């Protein structure tokens, strides 16, 4: 079974942990792949570098780089995140976590007019979960203080209501068997806006932002006005930004009128495989133009939204673009600067060279449900959300978290001793005999993690074999996650 491990990215070997000890074949040229509705995946290619606001060439014809170019290796372990030391900047007025609401019972997740609120933490509990509350008058409840089960703590008698230093029910209060909330959960009802910026050439149904909005609707059934989704398709003319700015201004006016507490930005576009730039027009291939990440957010997202995200109680950003945005050091540092400037509490990008954005949906949904709805800390939620996402095991995930001293960056990779040893991938074919999936798993490999291993080709008379390199600085995450997922790369 998979095990969760943690190690320092700064000490990792930059080469692929799976080295095929035979002659490598040349990569084929990358072509646009199709997904739902015939739209191309967010794989990107090469694009003419043209900063926004500066007229670009009338037409472009750029030959696509061959797959597996040195600047962007295919394996998600080929390029590591170096330790980047940021100057310490003390910020004020920024809450460390989302401030939850009290509309929902922390035991069942439902709302109730007669719920009582914990005097210590603010969680609410309803008479359906605490039966004694149903037989008490409002005046009597107002004269008491209430301590919820979470504040009571494990293995302690749950007294609940107190008058001074004496419990109202000396024998303890009852928690109904129908209560289903996890310990420490607090369901929140703060208003949420899901804002999607999507390149016009990849726009289609079933995007991660749309799926997330649908999933959240069930938690806003009693207050649907507190959940909104807005989509901004873009195909920007670099010599004339005004039409796009007017479109963004209309969205900003809407957001300012409704004043959402929490904001989620999902940017869905292509990225240039050689520089890590983000594309803002074209079809994602030969007709596209791109610009640096900082310039993209300044011109496409805009200064008004920059100010808006800075002022939210909680904001997060998902960059659904191919892995060059985090594999190339200069682009990765630009992404860090953007996350710091916008004050996104959580930012996610993905290391897969040819990212299929529709496969990141379960992970994003699970993360948002845990952080925005049930109030769990984001740092504890990422490994769990990854483990529960059956479609995201093919890519690494880079998580940037805003703090008062700068932006912390972590990279998660799936590790399995036989399916994905040390975070690498098995080639589907032996390059010597051309057999399909020929690799023989050595004995006792299923329980061995982070060791040098040799996998031989199982075809008769074939001498092909693979060497799996050991990753330095390998450290385990909490044991409760060992059977769930993967490996974690965390630069200091």
Automatic annotation (TrEMBL):
Keywords on record: Metal-binding, Zinc, Zinc-finger
- UniProt lists compositionally biased (Low complexity) regions at 33-48
Where are the residues of the annotated region Disordered?
Answer: 1-52
Q: Which residues cross the membrane?
A: none
InterPro entries assigned to the protein according to its UniProt record, in alphabetical order: Znf_RING
User: Can you give the residue ranges of the RING-type domain?
Assistant: 105-151
Q: Does the keyword Cytoplasm apply?
A: no
What is a single molecular function from GO for this protein? zinc ion binding
What is the designated name of this protein? RING-type domain-containing protein
